[in-house]
Amino acid sequence: MRSMVLLGVPALLLAVVTPAQAATQPACGDEITTSTTLTADLVCEDVGLVVATDRVVLDLGGHALSGKIALSVEGASRAVVRNGSINGHRTGGVSLRGTRDLVFDTVTLSAGIDAADARDTTFQRVRQTGRSAEMLFTGYSQLRAQDSAFEAYAFRCTDRSTCRLVRSTTTISDYFTCDDTSQWHVTGGKLTATWISCATLAVTGADLTTFRVTTKALTISDARVGGGMILQTNTARIVRTRFSGGQAALMIVRIEGGTIRQNTFADGRAAGLFVNVATPAKLAVEANAFTANGHLSELVDLGGNAVKDGAHLHTGEGSSVEVTGNRATGNARYGIWAQPWVVDDGRNTTHDDPLGCLNVACIPV
Question: Given a cut of 80, is residue 114 above it in pLDDT?
């Protein structure tokens, strides 16, 4: 009986130890076919790891995966990459091809992403630190980035793709773009980009800093826009947003129609809201506040008129511009300056604007 117990102890120990000993560190170029955890950094010259199997978890174990193409995910569904860092080439250090329901969770990226047909891709708690990197989502890709941060050179969403940023901080040193078939949605968080160009852009509840925005359809609501913005668009819906600073807090240089309602425009050097188009436009300018604009201006509009106003509305003859319920306070010249063909729907007010309003009946308050 004693010999059986002694023999049993080594057998039990072997059953416990063997699986741990069997877990080995993958090598450069390996295809991950079962859930895997790195036990050390993996530094590769060319390809790091390839995920091509459904439902696997690549746990980086707090380590770094590095390579020219550090990670390639090809045709896999419901795979998860988590808990570590990925270092790769700035234009394709992470390659995604034909993926479905892919999740990156708590990952730091010093690499660019090249994604094609990457549907239902989720980034959560992802930090991208490569300021020269390019992020490209194309070919029906779908990205949802939540509670993440990006510092790339360019972020592109093209070729029938949809990209969403939720509560994320995004700093793009140059281009934040999509094409005529794709859409960007930004909800909460912060977005800073030198240039935003996108057919369809929707910004809700975010802090936005940019020099120029070019769209076909723009929606901004419950947001904050600092430093002045120049807008070119076909249609716009801009509501409950604060614009401040810049030559004009919001300068519109191309528009066909839209609604500008319940916004605040403050501290623009030339104007709070400056619509400067020569073509007819159909606009509703309603219940906005124009405060302390125009005090540092030598700007003129397309007709040669000085711009030192709360709102300066220059549109082509034949326009339908309805102006109603706006409040102007402390602007350098006019509270509201408008072309003679505006439709004054009343209830506009002026306070401490030296020239009151032009072509709009403003009630002194």
Answer: yes
Could you tell me if 51 and 81 are in contact, meaning their C-beta atoms sit under 8 angstroms apart? yes
DSSP string covering 305-356: -B--EEEEEE--TT-EEEEES-EEES-SS-SEEE-TT-EEEE-EEEES-TT-
Confidence band for 23, pLDDT divided at 50, 70 and 90? low
Sequence-separated (6 or more) residues with CB below 8 Å from residue 106: 82, 83, 124, 125, 126
Angle, alpha carbons 324-325-328 (nearest 5°): 110
Do the beta carbons of residue 61 and residue 37 sit within 8 Å?
A: yes
Question: Is the per-residue pLDDT at 186 higher than 90?
Answer: yes
Using CA of residue 317, residue 312, residue 257, residue 212, what is the dihedral sign? positive
Phi, psi of 19 (to 5 degrees): -60, -40
Quote the CA–CA distance of 31 and 50 in Å, as a whole number. 5
C-beta separation of 60 from 39 below 8 A: no
Q: Mean pLDDT, to the nearest integer, of 148-161?
A: 96
Q: What is the pLDDT of residue 6?
A: 36
Q: Measured between alpha carbons, how far is 114 from 97 in angstroms, rounded to an integer?
A: 8
The pair of three-digit structure tokens given for residue 90, joined into one six-digit string = 């700035």
Tell me how far apart the alpha carbons of residues 276 and 113 are, in angstroms, rounded to a whole number: 39
> At 330, is the pLDDT very low, low, confident or very high (cuts 50, 70, 90)?
very high
Q: How many CB atoms lie within 10 A of CB 365?
A: 10
Tokens, residue 337: 């300056």
48/30 Cα distance (integer angstroms): 7
What's the chain's Rg over C-alpha atoms? 28
Mean pLDDT of 124-152: 96
279-308, pLDDT tens digit by residue? 999 999 999 999 999 999 889 999 999 999
Beta-carbon contacts of 57 under 8 Å, excluding residues fewer than 6 positions away, are 35, 36, 79, 80, 81, 82
* Cα separation, 16 vs 12, whole angstroms: 7
**Between residues 13 and 212, the one the model is more confident about:** 212
Structure tokens at 273: 């809201």
Q: From CA 279, how far away is CA 268, in angstroms rounded? A: 24
DSSP class per residue in 134-168: EEEEESS-EEEEES-EE--SEEEE-SS-EEEEES-
